[in-house]
Amino acid sequence: MPDTAFDFESSLKDMSKQEWISEVTELVGEHGYLTPLGRRHTATFVENSATLLVSFETHQGIETLSPHGHPLGWHMVKAHGWSHLSIISDGDTWFRDPAVYAHFDQLVDDGFFDAFDTVLFYGAGPCGYAAAAFSVAAPGAKVLAIQPQATLDPRVAEWDKRFVEMRRTDFTQRYGYAPDMLDAASETFILYDPAEAEDAMHAALYTRPGVTKLRLPHMGAALQTDLLQLEVLFPLMKAAADGNLTPLFFAKLARARRVHLPYLRKLLARLEQDERSALIAALCHNVTQRMRAPRFESRLKQIRGRVTD
User: Fold this and answer.
1) Who contacts 66 (Cβ-Cβ below 8 Å, separation ≥6)?
2) 3-state secondary structure of 250
3) Exposed site from 18, 38, 56, 228, fewest CB < 10 Å?
4) Torsion over CA: 281, 282, 286, 287 (sign)
5) 208-262 pLDDT per residue, tens
6) Cα–Cα–Cα angle for 192, 204, 218, nearest 5°?
7) 256: three-class secondary structure by DSSP
8) Which of these, 268, 200, 254, lies nearest to 226 by C-alpha position?
9) Is residue 88 helix, strand or coil?
10) Are 146 and 192 in contact (CB under 8 A)?
11) For the chain, which domains are there?
12) Are 256 and 250 in contact (CB under 8 A)?
C-alpha cells in the first residue's frame, strides 16, 4: 500500500458540513475517497498500511474534539501510518441507516477488509455501539468501544431514560443488537465508569467470551474527552491493534488520572457524598503534595481545623 502524502496541518475548523466535506474530498484525493451515505452519514477512507482503523464519529464531535477539525483516526494515520475508514454521522444516529448497512455490505462483497492484516473498530457512546455492531462485517477484527450502548430497544433497555427520542428507531434489524455482533471479533474491549449506572448496565449486556471490560471508576460520563486530555486514547488504540491491551497495560495508562483534576474533583465529591472523612483527608493530602490544587488545600485545612478544635 502507498505511503500517504497527506496534509495533516490543514485546518477544517469552523466549517459548515458541506464545506468540510468538500475540503476533505480534496485532501483525501488519490489516497482514498469520501462518499455520502444517505442524508446524515458520510464515509471517508485513507489508504496507507495493512493496519486499518474503522472509527465511528460525529461531525459535531470532530469539531469539538479535534484542534484541526480532523477525524480522530487521522492521528493514527499520521503517527503510525495506519489506513483509516471513518463513518461520520450528523448528530447522534447510532448509525441506524440502511445507507450505512448497504455501504458495509458493499465493503464485504468487495473483500475490502480482507486486504488488511489488522482491523480495529473504534467508537464512543452511540459511536461505540456502532463500532461493536458493524465489526461483524470484518471477522477477526478487534473492537475498542467506550461507553457503548448495547441497544436502545425499549424491550431490552427500558431502564435507559437518556435517549427516549430513539425508542422508535429499529434496533432489531441488521447490525442491530451490538453484543451479538461481536461473535466474530477476535478481541473486544469495553471501557466504562461503573459509577455511571446506565453505562454499567449496558456494559453488563456485553458480558461474553472474548470481551474484556476495562473500568474507569469516578471518571464520569465523558470518557473519550477525558482520555484525550490525558493523552492515553491513542496509546489505547495502538495497544488494542497490536494485541498488547492487557488489564495491566490499561492500569498503567490509567495512572494518568492521578494528575487529572476533573477526575480528582469527582473522586472528592464521591467521598464527600459518602462522608468518608479519613479518606477525604488522605486524598487532599496526597493531591496537595503532588500539585497545586486550591480546592483540595482548602478542604484539607477545614478538616485539620476540625481536628484541632
Assistant:
1) 13, 72
2) helix
3) 18
4) negative
5) 999 999 999 999 999 999 999 999 999 999 999 999 999 999 999 999 998 888 8
6) 30
7) helix
8) 254
9) strand
10) yes
11) 17-257 (3.40.50.1820), 261-308 (no CATH)
12) no
